[in-house]
Structures are given as C-alpha cells and as structure tokens.
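Please, structure for the following, as tokens.
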Amino acid sequence: MRIKISLSLTILLSLLFTLSSMSIATPPKYLVLQVTSEPTHAAIYLDQKFTGKYTPCKLDGLSIGTYQLELRKKNYRTEKRKIKLSANENNEDFLLVETSLYYMWLCLPALLLGAAMTLFLTLIAVFNGIILGTIAGIAKVIHNKTINLLAGIYVDFIRGTPLLVQIFMIHFGLPPLLGNLFSHGQPIPLNPFFSAILALSINSGAYVAEIMRAGIQSIDKGQMEAARSLGMTYRQAMRFIILPQAIKQVIPPLGNEFIAMLKDSSLVSVIGMEELVRKAQIIVTRSYRPTETWLEVGLIFLLMTIPFTRLVSWLERRLKTND
C-alpha cells in the first residue's frame, strides 16, 4: 500500500514538474516592441505597412518572428532595420540623419555669418592694400634709389613667399618679438582678427604696388614732361596729372585683386579666425558630413565672386568705350 502511495506521489510530482517546465519555456503569445528615435515623431512602418503610430511608442500584439521596421520623417533619411522579436524585452533606438538639402539648409545661417566675416576681412584688407600699394608703387618709380630699393624688397619678399607663411610669421612670430620689446621677454599674444587683417593687408599691398607701378608707367612720359614744363613740381605732376590717369587704367586689375583676396582670405582659418572656412571646419567636426558642408562652402564662395567678376568685366568694357 505504501509502495503504491509513494509511486503515485512520484508520478504526480513528475507531472507537476513537467507542466511547470512547459509553462516557463512557452513564450507569451503577444509581445511588445518599444521604438524610439532622435529626433522624435517619426512615422513607424512595419513590413512596409504604416502602423498609425509615431516615435516614441510601444507596439503591442506582436508575435515572435522577423519584421522589417522602417522609420520615416520629413527632411530626414528613411531608416530601415530588420528585427527579430524574442520573448525578452524588445527595444529599438534610431538616430535619424537629415537629408543632404535639409542639412545644407540647417548649416546655411552659420556659413552665411562666416561669409559676412570673409567679405568684411577682404574689404578692409583690399582698402588697406590700395593705400599701402599706392605708396609702394609710387616709391618704385620715383627717382630715389634708396626708396626704390626698400619698396622693391617689400614687394619681392611678399610676392615671393606664401600667404600662409606670412600669416604664421605675424600671428606666431610677432608675439615673442613684441614681448622682448615691451614685456620683458614675455610673449604678447595677438588677436586672430588683428593678425588676419595685418597679414592680408600687407599681402594685398604688395600686389597692388605692382598694379599701380604698371599703371603709372603705362602713362606716356610726355605727360610728366608737359606738366613739368608748365611749372609743376614732380609731386604736383604725379598727383594731378599722372595718378588720375593711372587709376583709370588699374581699376580692372584692382577688381581682380579683390576677387583673389576674397578667396585667399580662407587661409586665416589656420589661426582660428572664424570666417567661412573656419565655420565649415567646426560644423564638420560636429556632424561628420564633409561632402555637403564643403560643397556648400564652395557654392557660397562662387556666389560671392560671380558678382564681382561681372562687375570687373563691365568696368573693363566701360573704360574701353570711354577711351
């Protein structure tokens, strides 16, 4: 009797253990899928069918299996992912990426701010360069060998060295020199804006000097002789007779110098000056999307240079007509 009871208990316990094991191993009939995205409010498609829900949300009533999960949001690239649901927690996180056009639109305000700084630097540099270059150009043609030599050294040195090196010489080379003169050997740091203006102005002045020299020498020598025969001094003849005619000749080349300086001003980005190129570098380090960023920078430079190119061409035609 005892053997029968113990056998019955053994069978009963085995059945209970089997049933409990089956209940643990059997997965739930319906699962929940948690879907999130950055940015939010992206439409959720499951097996190419719109679920009617937007991120973040939970999709319930799903069963174990493989699904094609897809998120769609305006101005963002569609993200697709094949997922396999299990009895455990099912979470899917998405990082949505802007489309190229929308990304370029988002970058536009910062790049336009940089473009304004680029234009401002160019205007100041060319203005200073015209003043400096006019003085140097006149110094190269007057009858004074010492002044001719000094002007020639300035022009040859600046035209013979890269602008990038000149920027480094001013921004990194001047502080120790100024420190030795005014601060007991302690380097005096320079503001990037000041260094950029100084370097670009000096560089532009050397090229304008050659433009002005050529313009002055293009005027017939008889003009100077006629002015001197009327009793004018050399300075008066240069001021009232030669320079007004030379300026008319050099306006188109000065326009080309402005366009060249507009593009060369991008080099000041190496000293931290936040103009157009530096703004683009900062954006690229944050977004890791160099293709769209540099394409947009190129287009902005193109849009800035085209009007000045057309203006220079118009001036050339106008001055030829007046001749």
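Confidence is low (pLDDT under 50) at residues 22-27. Strands lie at 31-38, 43-46, 49-54, 57-62, 65-72, 79-85, 90-95.
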